[in-house]
Specification:
This protein is an alpha+beta fold and 186 residues long. It contains eight helices and four strands. It has one domain. The strands form two sheets. A two-stranded antiparallel ribbon has the order 1-2. Strand 3 and strand 4 form a beta hairpin.
Length: 186
C-alpha cells in the first residue's frame, strides 16, 4: 500500500507550487494583463514603484504643483505603467497610439441616444472639437483655444491600450486637455 504524507508550505505572492519531474517547484504565476493590473492611478504608481523617476517627481511636488504639471505627471505615470517598459523610438516602422476624444456641444448631447450619452464623459462649450491625440483640442467660441499636431510624449504601444487609457483614465485626460480639476488621490 502506497502511503502519502500531507505537507503545507508557504507560497510567495506571484508564485505557485507545482510538481515538475517529481520535484515540488515554485513557478512564477502568469502575470495578469496590464489592463487588469492598472485600473487606477494608484495602481499605476504601484506598478512603477517608489524608485521610478516620474513617481519620485510626482511625490516631490506635493500639493503646490501647477495644475497642468500635475496632470501631465499623472498621465505620464499611467502611460508608462501601461506601456510596461516600452518607449517610442519614433522611426518609420513604429506605430504609436493615443486616445482620441470628441468634444460635444450641449445641443449635440441632447440629440444623442441614451447609449451614445453613456459614452460621453465631459461636455464642452459651443463649437468645440478635438483633433486627436493628447493636447490636440480647439475651441472656437469658448474660453480658450489650443492646438498641437500630436501628443507623442504620452504615446501608447497598442491601439487597445490607447482605447483603454482614454476610457479608464478619462478624468486625467480631461484634466490635461480641458484644464479640469483633477484631485490628488492616492
Amino acid at each position: 500500500m502506497n502511503k502519502t504524507k500531507k505537507i503545507e508550505i508557504e507560497v510567495p505572492e506571484g508564485k505557485r507550487a507545482e510538481w515538475v519531474n517529481g520535484v515540488l517547484t515554485l513557478i512564477d504565476e502568469k502575470p495578469k494583463d496590464v489592463t487588469e493590473r492598472v485600473k487606477t492611478f494608484q495602481d499605476a504608481l504601484d506598478e512603477l514603484g517608489a524608485d521610478d523617476e516620474l513617481v519620485k517627481e510626482y511625490r516631490a511636488l506635493g500639493d503646490n504643483a501647477r495644475h497642468d504639471t500635475l496632470c501631465w505627471l499623472r498621465l505620464g505615470i499611467i502611460v508608462k505603467a501601461l506601456n510596461e517598459g516600452w518607449t517610442p523610438k519614433f522611426d518609420k516602422k513604429e506605430y504609436r497610439y493615443a486616445p482620441y476624444f470628441y468634444l460635444y456641444t450641449e445641443d449635440e448631447i441632447n440629440e444623442m441616444t441614451d447609449k451614445e450619452k453613456s459614452r460621453v464623459v465631459y461636455r464642452s462649450c459651443y463649437s468645440a472639437s478635438a483633433n486627436g491625440g493628447v493636447a490636440c483640442a480647439s475651441a472656437s467660441n469658448g474660453s480658450s483655444g489650443a492646438g498641437a499636431g500630436l501628443g507623442s510624449r504620452l504615446a501608447l504601444r497598442t491601439r487597445e491600450l490607447a482605447i483603454y487609457a482614454g476610457s479608464q483614465f478619462a478624468e486625467e485626460y480631461a484634466g490635461l486637455i480641458l484644464n479640469e480639476s483633477v484631485a490628488r488621490k492616492e
